[in-house]
Here is the input.
Amino acid sequence: MENISVKSVVLYIARKYRWLCVAAIIGMIGLTGLNIVKGPNYAEHATDTDSVTREELEEAQDALKTAQDNLEASEQKLISQQELLKSYETSMESYKDKWAEDAYLQTTAADRYAVSTVYQFSGSSEAQVRQALNALKAALESMYEEISSGVTSEDMSSYNAEQLFKTDVNLNQNQVVIKTSSETEEGLSELTDLYHAWMEKKLQQYQEEYPDANLKMKVIEENNYNYYDSDIFSQQSSASDKKISLQNNILSAKNAITSTRNEIASNKTKVTEAKTELKKVEKLWNNTIEVSEESGKVISKSSVIIYLIVGAILGIICCGGFWAFVYMYGTKLHDSEDLGSKIGEKTIGTVYSPEYKGKSRLLRKLDQWGGVQEIPDMDLQYQRIAADISLMMKHLQQDKLVMTGTVELDDLQKISAELQKYFKGIEVYAGQNPVSDVETSKMLLNIETVVIVEKIGSSRIRAIRELKAYLDRCGIRILGGITE
Here is the structure.
């Protein structure tokens, strides 16, 4: 295999820069076009990485609007709940003011007393707590008979038998309210102890019936009232009911406000997340090219840029590979270095035509990188070559040489004539390829030294090799080659 230098190949490829540019453009267009029309699978893949569809953009916008609407609704609900709580608190203040004004409803010289007790039930299972309260609600109807059976008739005469007990079960708040009355404080205390004990007994019973409910009971309020007749007692009972109702409403309103504030905080977080997601989607949308709005197919701008770059690189690589193959395995002489790498003979010099000065600056720079000494004056070029040949002929003690090669005889004679002007004591003869020309072969009978002359871009490697092989077989010394 020929000793072809990497530098020579690279220089040859670089001289084909126009073809490289064309190949780069074709590669960019081809690969980018493939990227655009590839198919739905690729579009889906692109959507998952650095682009989004119009539908996804609209979904992100809708998600933000929904989150903002929910936040606004929660804030309006909070305002309504705060106003409701304010109305409850105002009613409670009115309630307290009324009882302060109607002092007779609190303190009288009457000879009867009453008490209202609120029991709060709780447990680990809300359903079982409700079941226990429903059972208790039914049992309260028989509480009077159960308690009165343990009290003597003499004691009963001091109680208000008509309104001994008044009960109420609030399933919403899991509360039980029991009210009773007596003519004496002692009797009232005794009755209170009786239904306290009865409630404790029922609690123990329901704890056994509902062991998983973890049922608990506590007294959260106990109010005493004095009254002198049934009308005042009725007003006292009504006021007590109203107070309990207001307290429950205030508690519910406060709980609702707390819940709404938590909801607002959650909605604010959702709005922030939706804004972040929308910014991300909008950023991707700005990097997206919508190929078809109907099909929803998209590609990213960054992928287009990447494919343009990759396409250009692939085009250059393929084109460069092609020209490298042409340089290494082509049939023609590509540059002056081919004489050394493919023929095995050194290049004495290269004759550049006057048109060389018209070559592009890039090509001339590439030639300089390849070792070409640019001499614009043609006479100076021949003088340089003649001087080198003269030194070699002096060293060999020869005074005659033949200019031959695979080029036309006119070219050989022209170069021989130009060089003869600068030779001193050396005779130059021109002869066509001795492989096919007998006259040149006869000429070589008396002259043992030749210089091969070849044209870059037209002389064929195979013909030059045949010429060299012929000269070697004949024992003719080859000083080197001149290219033009």
Q: What stands out?
A: The first helix runs from residue 6 to 15. The two ends are 25 Å apart (CA to CA). The mean pLDDT is 75.
